[in-house]
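Provenance

Sequences were taken from public entries as deposited. Structures were produced by running a predictor on each sequence independently, with no templates supplied. The record for ABC-three component systems C-terminal domain-containing protein from Sphingomonas prati is shown for reference.
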Amino acid sequence: MSNGANQFTAGASAVGYLYQARLALLLCIPHVNTGVEVEVSIERFDDVSFQKGTALELLQTKHHIDRVASLSDSSEDLWKTLRVWSVAAKDDPSLPSRARLALITTGSAPVGSAASQLRPAGACAPGANRNPKSANERLTEVAQTSRNKALEPAFAAFLALSEPMRSALLSAVEVLDNQPLITDLDGELEHALRLVAPPGKAASAREMLEGWWWPLVCGALMTSPPTPIAIGLVEAKLDDIREMLRRGSLVADFEHAEPDELEYAGYDGFRFVQQLQVIGLGGSRMRFAKRDFYRAFAQRSKWTREHVVLDDEVEKFEQRLVEEWQPRFEAMCDGHADSAEDEAALKQGGQILYQWVENEARFPFRSLTARFLNVGSYHILANDLRIGWHRDYVTICVGEP
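Predicted structure for ABC-three component systems C-terminal domain-containing protein:
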């Protein structure tokens, strides 16, 4: 250990596994709506694989945080990948003729290297051509002459193939170098989703798709061997997202959000909490009220920040809430018109009015009718003293924060 660094850190390895899962999602999108029933697997046949019964594509992924990796002819990344595929081809000689073998890496293949000669035809540098025959010659020479002890198993696996089989294997190999880092995949996914999401909502579509994808991948990886994921599931989720992002639809991102304990405690000085205390509310119902305030405030703030709602929509929604509250509040006041009314009776009247908000007040905000949004918005109004529960709430709360 030096300079405070942990020599046993697994950060790079962790990023590599996350990269596999995130890249797999990106690579699923071209298979969507093709009419072909394809499945994607992670850590099953390879890092990432696509199959229809048998493997169609085997993908090895190599992520380097600092981008300095070079796919030279003696590259560890290249040879570890060739070892995996050589063993697979030895076991199943039909593999190179029926499957695409792709090495996807954030590293770079030097000009003239074997890896550069294995790029797809459309990805070769100007003046260069895909040349698996030349790549085979270069790699065979390295395998026969290199003294790199760490790569001996890879060299042996490659040379164990017959010359025709090595040629067939490399004809099936594609090297896709200079690929985006894991942090750059946001933009790649959003670009791929541009036909799914309405203008300006690609980021929302990506967040919704990835939020669904990660638990699915975790579940698939918990089985042995890992369970394949049908592309049809991705298609169905994209249909759901497309529907939710239609103009006129609102996404309730914070419907199940949970504030932390500091946020719960931070609301203790707010007027909406004081209003509930005045009518004798406490315990779990007070905690629920704080949670609804948090969810509604966070949701409305996000919609406003992302220009999802029009300027006057929140104002009109709040006006509807106030106007639904007004006659009920006045009816409660009429029932407790005596200025000397017993305080216990006033608290009870306020609680009955608040129970209506908890259990019945459900008004649509555009296309969305959600409990948390209605109840939380009533607490936002109560915090501004635009509505209240106790008959004398203005007098009691005036001057408070």
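The longest helix spans residues 283-305.
Residues 261-397 form one domain.
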